[in-house]
Design a protein that fits this description.
388 residues; 13-stranded parallel beta sheet; 7 helices; alpha/beta; single chain
């Protein structure tokens, strides 16, 4: 069973790694990660603090609390973090999602940036698409520009058309040159400095901000993207903390998956299924009685914790599978939990099949956790290890 699931997981992750690189790909993960070795292929980095200081011949993909790309990237660049900083040249397209996004190096392709604040001082050769509360483009752009934001500030030489949708103010710095057409929506028409030159003319639309259907779809897409990013990042942090603080418990769950017979694994999954299905019915029955309301509330809290821990330990179990397969290591470290939860989150995005895999792993970990805590609370003949 474990071999089949492992092969399926690796197959689902292949399109994001192997097929994209011409040379060998490089994978690195750590709490404070500094990537100082150049790579002939794609580079994948993950950590709380990530800094890339070596040139990348392929694509660069990085996720973390803070990400700094300080070396040239010949391919595309994908950065996901609370704070994103791209300080060197990018030979392909750039995609950035974060609370604060700063782009300083040149970008030969297109830019797509989503964040609370975006500051772009690079002169992008392709198109520019930005969605943020506060947006600043301080060095113009060689291609078309589309920006959705609250306050938008532009400066420099813009070779193409510029389209702005602002809920606040639009400002153009002194001597700004727009060779194409400026189209902007804002609550009030702006008065630009006399030195501003707009060759293609200006089209102003008074914005009422009840958003139209197109804007609503874009905002919905952005909201869903932020929700998924925050959910995955939170799951990675929790899985890493559980695997790092309670390694014995994580190893005990993994041991039940590797050393027990298929019949015992199936019984463990059935136990998890029975508890996850029967507990809500019991809670509703207790809530119908005045005496049982307090007990129903307590069981509801315990049930929510069980579901949360089952999902987290499903990712930790997957990380332990990677550790056993590739590193021949049975101990579970904190970064195994982070890597496993990241893989599980990516698999969950696959329609139908991904949810089925997450459900199967979660049922097993729920049953395994119940058995472990039962033997911990009520030890019998066998010595129960101290899991906590």
């Amino acid at each position: 069973m474990q071999r089949i699931l492992f092969i399926l997981f690796v197959f689902l992750l292949l399109p994001t790694s192997t097929f994209a690189a011409r040379g060998p790909a490089s994978f690195s993960i750590g709490r404070s990660l500094i990537a100082a070795s150049s790579s002939p292929g794609n580079v994948y980095l993950a950590g709380v603090s990530v800094v890339s200081t070596a040139p990348v011949a392929g694509d660069l993909s990085a996720i973390g609390g803070s990400v700094v790309a300080a070396a040239p990237v010949q391919g595309d660049e994908l950065l996901l973090a609370g704070s994103v900083s791209s300080r060197s040249s990018v030979g392909g397209d750039m995609r950035a999602v974060g609370g604060g996004v700063t782009i300083e190096g040149t970008v030969a392709g297109d830019i797509v940036a989503l964040g609370y604040s975006v500051h772009d001082s690079a002169r992008t050769q392709g198109s520019t698409f930005i969605v943020a509360a506060d947006v600043t483009l301080s060095n113009g752009a060689a291609g078309p520009v589309i920006i959705y934001g609250n306050n938008i500030s532009l400066a420099g030489d813009f070779a193409g058309n510029v389209t702005l949708v602002a809920t606040g103010h639009v400002s153009l710095a002194v001597d700004t040159l727009i060779r194409g057409k400026l189209s902007y929506e804002a609550p009030e028409e702006e008065i630009f400095p006399a030195s501003v030159t707009i060759i293609g003319g200006i089209k102003y639309t008074n914005a009422s901000y009840l958003p139209d259907a197109g804007t609503s779809r874009i905002l919905a897409f952005v909201s869903i993207g932020f929700f998924l990013f925050v959910r995955i990042l939170g799951a990675l942090i929790l899985a890493g903390l559980l695997a790092g603080l309670f390694p014995s418990l994580a190893e005990a769950v993994a041991l039940r998956a590797y050393e027990e017979r298929p019949r015992r694994i199936l019984l463990t999954m059935l136990l998890g299924f029975a508890i996850l299905v029967a507990a809500p019915i019991l809670i509703m029955l207790l809530a119908l009685t005045f005496v049982g309301i307090g007990l129903a509330l307590l069981l509801l809290i315990l049930y929510a914790l069980l579901v949360l821990f089952a999902l987290l330990y499903a990712g930790i179990l997957l990380g332990s599978m990677f550790a056993r397969r590739f590193q021949k290591r049975e101990t579970v470290l904190w970064h195994d939990g982070v890597l496993g939860m990241l893989a599980l989150s990516l698999v969950a995005l696959v329609p139908v099949f991904g949810l089925f895999v997450v459900l199967i792993l979660s049922l097993f970990t729920a049953g395994a956790l119940l058995l472990i805590f039962f033997h911990f609370a009520f030890p019998h003949e066998e010595h129960t290890p101290e899991l906590l």
